[in-house]
Amino acid sequence: MRKIGLIIDSTSALSEEEAKKLGIFYIPVVISVNNNNYLSGIDIDNKKLYEKMTSTKIRITTASPLGRSIEEAFDAALEEYPKAIFIGISHKFSGTANAANIIAQTDKYKGKIFVMTDTLFSSPWSKFYLPELNKLLEEYNDVEEVFELLRKTFEWQEGFLSPENITWFYKGGRITKAQYVLANMLKIIPILTIKDGRIDPKTTIKVRSFNKAVHKMCELIEPKVLALKKLKIPFKIVTIESSKPELLKKTNQIVKKYFNIKDKNIISTELSTDQTVHMGPTGFGLTVWVPLKGLK
């Protein structure tokens, strides 16, 4: 009989409904649009967010989950399991794991709820690893063993993201107006490196076309691909897109040609709604995914 429940947050890119179907408990990040708050994955998703982003006068931010949302997920998990683990977004991206751990250390939850405080997860890795982990939990009784298995994925969690259009970088305060104007004039597309659970500020790369951006991402991810092949570890290349299917189609075509692989070796996925807040509706990216069974 399974003894460990699984709790995730909305940065996994799963909705609450999708999580429920998998028997996973859910904590939503708060998304604020013009001072109106929404629970990510519950009352706002990518489609609704894209519609709101069409407005020229809009301010969008994200905030850590509400304390009551965390407690509700903890309570629901403990109704079905004697103990549960929470795996959220990387502690380097957000204070969610720390907030959840503070609540988990209270008398009500201590010794029952365990938080992976050193998590390095973000979407898309968590979208694939957590449902897979949920199935594997039938085999585990020890929480630390579960955490150790997940830590084996960390060295492969390197990816590359681009907003294509830098408008949302500017609206989010990540670049100045002068930088925004200059980048638009030069048609610059930035590529961000996601490594060790954070955006590496020292390795931002600038290109001037979508095709060049995808080719550069392939070049950057190739060392991981070659290392996985050498170690004979199974993997798939993950292509990421927001609201434009034509971008995804182009990305997949370039990836297939660059790596000489077939469709079955590629997984395509959307950015999480939480990521879309910061990347905008035309964000895209590339990474690799290694199944947990390949690391056991």
How would you sum up this structure, described in words?
By secondary structure, the chain is an alpha/beta fold. It has helices spanning 16-21, 46-53, 67-80, 96-104, 125-136, 143-151, 167-171, 177-186, 210-231, 245-259, 273-279; strands spanning 4-9, 25-27, 30-33, 36-39, 60-63, 83-87, 113-115, 159-162, 189-195, 198-199, 205-207, 236-241, 266-270, 284-289. Helix 3 (67-80) crosses helix 4 (96-104) and helix 9 crosses helix 10. The model has no long low-confidence stretch (mean pLDDT 89).
- Roughly what fraction of the amino acids lie in strands? 15-25%
**Structural class by helix and strand composition:** alpha/beta
In which range does the helix fraction lie? 25-40%
- The CATH architecture of the largest domain can be named as 2-Layer Sandwich
Number of helices in the DSSP assignment: 11
Q: According to CATH, what is the class of the largest domain?
A: Alpha Beta
Quick take:
This protein is an alpha/beta fold. The chain contains 11 helices and 14 strands. It is 40% helix and 21% strand.
Lay out the secondary structure.
Layout: E1 4-9, H1 16-21, E2 25-27, E3 30-33, E4 36-39, H2 46-53, E5 60-63, H3 67-80, E6 83-87, H4 96-104, E7 113-115, H5 125-136, H6 143-151, E8 159-162, H7 167-171, H8 177-186, E9 189-195, E10 198-199, E11 205-207, H9 210-231, E12 236-241, H10 245-259, E13 266-270, H11 273-279, E14 284-289
Parallel strand pairs: 1-2, 1-6, 6-7, 12-13
Antiparallel strand pairs: 3-4, 3-5, 8-9, 8-14, 9-10, 9-11, 12-14
Helix pairs in contact: 3-4, 9-10
